[in-house]
Specification:
The complex is a heterodimer of chains A (373) and B (278).
Chain A lengths: L1 H13 L1 H21 L7 E6 L3 H7 L4 E6 L5 H6 L5 E4 L6 E5 L3 H15 L11 E5 L6 H32 L1 H6 L5 H31 L7 H25 L3 H18 L11 H7 L3 H15 L7 H26 L5 H5 L21 E4 L1
Parallel strand pairs in A: 1-2, 1-3, 4-5
Antiparallel strand pairs in A: 3-4
Helix pairs in contact in A: 2-10, 6-8, 6-9, 6-10, 6-12, 8-9, 9-10, 9-12, 9-13, 12-13
Chain B lengths: L3 E10 L2 E11 L4 E6 L5 H9 L6 E6 L5 E4 L11 H11 L4 H15 L14 H13 L5 E4 L8 H16 L3 E5 L3 H4 L4 E6 L2 E6 L1 H6 L4 E5 L6 H4 L2 E4 L2 E6 L12 E2 L4 H11 L4
Parallel strand pairs in B: 3-7, 3-8, 5-6, 6-7
Antiparallel strand pairs in B: 1-2, 1-4, 8-9, 10-12, 10-13, 11-12
Helix pairs in contact in B: 2-3, 2-4, 4-5
Classes of the chains: A alpha/beta (373), B alpha/beta (278).
């Protein structure tokens, strides 16, 4: 056994990346996630409307922050479009407070805070408000979790599985063969991710169908808008998978890296802990994670029937993330496939290949030359 | 003559010089064999010749990626695809017309005895069958330059004959073939042989040229030499001892044995013994 232990230690010592991930990453994750793990909602964005809007604003509990005074007809739209979690409409016999049930923790915190207003003796002045929860009236956890879980599954297929598929080519030596075949890096890249894209799409359809059929999760919005968001999101996750595989030496490293990207997405994206509860010092990380935006889109479309015009921000951020990740992944993939110099001539690209190619070295200085004739 | 190949190529891996000023022409219609011990630089040389690895210095000429067939050390075969699927992928990647691909696949599989295994996963094939599949895949597009890294290693003698038939056919059709091998009897069949040692050329030429360039004498005896210096120049082969006597050594003490005509194996051993100490 001693010999086995020594052998394992020697192998581990040489696999420095794994060792670093085993020691450093847990500490980083613990610190980040420690600040993120909070269900306490202390900031509840609200809009007020109606003739007594200002009076209602003054009476709202301290955790409510009025972000706008809007016409009564627009109050619910503010909730639908995610601009506020609470809308207070005055002008009737008693004020009506609408809560966005798709933001479950915020809605629960708002309910509790409003309950204190309704206690006898505390709400002695104006009439106690009527509270109505929209989009998820029973505040069911499954309604808000399943759209997000669909995103997690897409991350799993897109990032974790894809990263394995590409790094396997490197480990088995077939990548070297691909490098000398007349395939453009773009062909190889797209060819690699296309099947995963299809599998991810099927996965998504199954998860949504099961969510709707089995758990009764509503799908109120436009399937086309949802599909567009999912398309962008899968684009990012597949790019991440390829990026991870291109910096990993083996499948073990790829899995570790992929899980390291999966974990923060699950815990920081607002899927479990409300974003507003996350410490400001780590909240910025959430805005770098694609699942944050997919969550916004999925919940917005499925639960609140949010139109695409109201979702332009998460769409734009996802597109930006997708462009950045795909560019990086493509560059890494090109380097991964091609020798560091003389690639053009080796691959027969125009200008360097063919009988008209110069007889001399391709690269200056007569240091490196790889040419075709 | 229109030749591809390497000219004064050096390859450096970090601080290690894997190839040091090696020249090897790949001439259409000729089989050139690279021989040498483990770590001699055979794979590095072939990777350069195929365009996988850029040289640190020197020049590499290739006919272009569409015209180069390469058998990598791993075989470049997908173990979770069948024989047919592997060859189908290769043919499609090279843009081979389907009818021509089918015809070539059938011909090569029949000749190498793989026809019965067309539907089997490559991962379920024996090591030798897998190697044959790799060679067939490299040959499939009908390349002008065929680079094969140890195509016959680990293959039974009958299959080696099949593979050499395929390689010979490719050369006869005009392909320039560069291959590495650890079998010197195979290298003797090549039109040109390059002997590598620690990344440097030890000998080069036709097998006959390399053999005729052997300096001194080779003596055959049934017992090992008693003299320590002679023992350092002796090797055992086919149950007997061979000893190299350098030229100009005069009549060595205890000279005993029959003078033999060297073959390529003797010539390579002598080249290694005669090389200047680095």
């Amino acid at each position: 056994m001693k010999a086995m232990i020594i052998k394992e230690f020697r192998q581990l010592r040489r696999d420095r990346r794994t060792l670093a991930m085993m020691i450093v990453m847990p500490v980083i994750l613990l610190v980040i996630l420690g600040y993120a793990a909070s269900f306490d909602v202390s900031f509840i964005p609200a809009v007020v409307s109606g003739p007594s809007a200002r009076e209602a604003e003054a009476l709202l509990p301290a955790s409510f922050h009025v972000v706008g005074v809007v016409p009564a007809a627009q109050a619910q739209a503010e909730l639908r479009d995610g601009h506020a979690a609470v809308a207070v409409v005055t002008g009737g016999p008693r004020p009506v407070v609408y809560l966005d049930g798709s933001q479950i923790f915020t809605a629960r915190a708002a309910e509790q805070a409003l309950a204190t207003l309704a206690r006898p003796g505390q709400a002695s002045g104006p009439a106690a408000p009527a509270v109505r929860v929209l989009y998820n009236p029973e505040l069911r956890t499954s309604d808000i979790m399943i759209p997000g879980i669909a995103g997690v599954i897409l991350v799993f297929v897109g990032t974790v599985i894809t990263s394995l598929g590409v790094v396997r080519e490197r480990q088995t030596g077939t990548l070297e063969q691909l490098a000398v075949m007349p395939l453009r890096p773009r062909d190889v890249f797209l060819g690699k991710i296309a099947p995963y894209f299809a599998v991810a799409a099927v996965d998504l359809a199954i998860v949504l169908a099961v969510g709707v059929a089995l758990f009764g999760v509503p799908f109120r919005g436009s399937p086309a808008v949802f599909a567009l968001g999912a398309l962008l999101f899968v684009f990012v996750t597949l790019g991440l998978g390829v990026l991870i595989s291109s910096v990993s030496q083996n499948q073990g490293q790829a899995i570790q890296l992929a899980v390291m990207t999966l974990l923060p997405q699950v815990l920081l994206s607002g899927l479990i802990f409300p974003l507003s509860s996350t410490a400001a010092g780590v909240r910025w990380i959430a805005y770098l994670l694609p699942l944050t935006y997919f969550n916004e889109i999925a919940r917005g479309v499925m639960l609140r029937a949010e139109p695409v015009t109201a979702l332009w921000q998460p769409f734009c951020y996802l597109a930006l993330l997708g462009a950045a990740v795909m560019t990086l992944a493509t560059l890494r993939f090109r380097a991964f496939l091609a020798p560091p110099a003389g690639r053009g001539s080796a691959r027969g690209e125009p200008g360097l290949a063919g009988p008209a190619a110069p007889a001399g070295p391709v690269l200056a200085g007569d240091k490196v030359a790889l040419e075709e004739s | 003559m229109n030749a591809w190949g390497l000219s004064g190529v050096s390859v450096r891996h970090g601080r290690m010089l894997a190839l040091d000023g090696v020249t090897l022409a790949a001439v259409p219609g000729r089989i050139a064999a690279v021989v040498g011990g483990d770590g001699a630089g055979k794979t590095t040389l072939l990777r350069c010749a195929a365009g996988v690895l850029p040289p640190s210095a020197g020049r590499v000429r290739t006919p272009g990626i569409r015209q180069t067939g390469y058998l990598s050390p791993s075989g470049g075969i997908y173990l979770d695809l069948t024989v047919d699927e592997n060859l189908g992928f290769r043919a499609a990647a090279y843009g081979l017309p389907a009818a021509r691909a089918r015809e070539r696949v059938a011909e090569h599989l029949d000749r190498t005895g793989l026809a019965a295994a067309r539907g089997r996963l490559a991962g379920q094939l024996s090591g030798g069958m897998r190697k044959k599949l790799g060679v067939i895949a490299a040959l499939l597009p009908g390349p002008a330059l065929l680079v094969l890294d140890e195509p016959t290693t680990g293959i039974d003698p009958v299959s080696r004959v099949d593979l050499w038939w395929l390689i010979g056919q490719a050369a006869a059709a005009g392909a320039a073939v560069l291959l590495s091998t650890t079998y010197l009897d195979e290298a003797q069949r090549a039109g040109h042989v390059l002997v590598l040692d620690a990344g440097r050329p030890l000998a080069a030429g036709t097998p006959a040229e390399i053999i005729s360039a052997v300096p001194g004498t080779i003596l055959l005896s049934s017992v090992p030499p008693a003299d320590e210096a002679q023992r350092r120049r002796a090797w055992r082969r086919a149950g007997q001892w061979r000893r190299w006597e350098p030229p100009g050594a005069g009549q060595p003490p205890g000279r005993a044995g029959q003078v033999v005509r060297p073959d390529l194996q003797d010539a390579v051993v002598v080249a290694a013994l005669a090389r200047p100490a680095s």
